[in-house]
Amino acid sequence: MVFVYQEVEVNFHFIGEPTERPTLILHGWGCDGEVFEPILSSFDRSFLTLDFPPFGKSGKIGEEWNIYTYASMVMSLCEHLKIKECDILAHSFGGRVAILIASLAPSFVRSLVLVDSAGLRPRVNLKRTFKVWQFKLLRRLNKDVRGFGSADYQKLDPVTRKAFVSVVSEDLKGYCPQIEAKTLIVFGQKDKDTPVYMAKKLNKLIKNSQLVVLKDGGHFSFLDCPMAFTKILDKFWEDIS
Description:
alpha/beta; 8 strands
């Protein structure tokens, strides 16, 4: 199914019978709504998945998209579907969107699961700081900067690249204490993209939260440790029922 937001097509679908209080699945950057499906089959729930534009089967984003645009898009989709309350399961970039929604619309989010979530500014790293300084200097001198950034960053078109820079530049630390929903934070011990120190910081900032670290998990800890993750998630959802 397709929902149109700011002239951008957003692909979405339900897994299980549609309800007015589904579990909303928010995937990471560069993935799509299918990434959690191997896990979701273990649960008898109504899930609403979507593809964040421009990924999956959704359309290309417009100019000036940022993390607030993505959060507004999700809320508009839920309003369109007459969803008044939900549980949220979010990974990485999806965690950024979930943090915003849970903090700004607390009555909408009954529970929150943040898996290897982004959203906090990383610790100061001298090597990283130097590369950022070098990038800005070369760009100011109109030099070639195409060698900077990750492989994923290099693959992005200019509009999406601009949105990506805007998204990762936002520090959502100030929003976390506003979250009222019971929250489960699950991180992989071997996660290098969003290291465990970020999980511990989220745990301190979100008052009604618990933290579980999967020792064999990386940035996709729910796929690296599916049995352990499913067990933890099942207990969390059972406790809030």
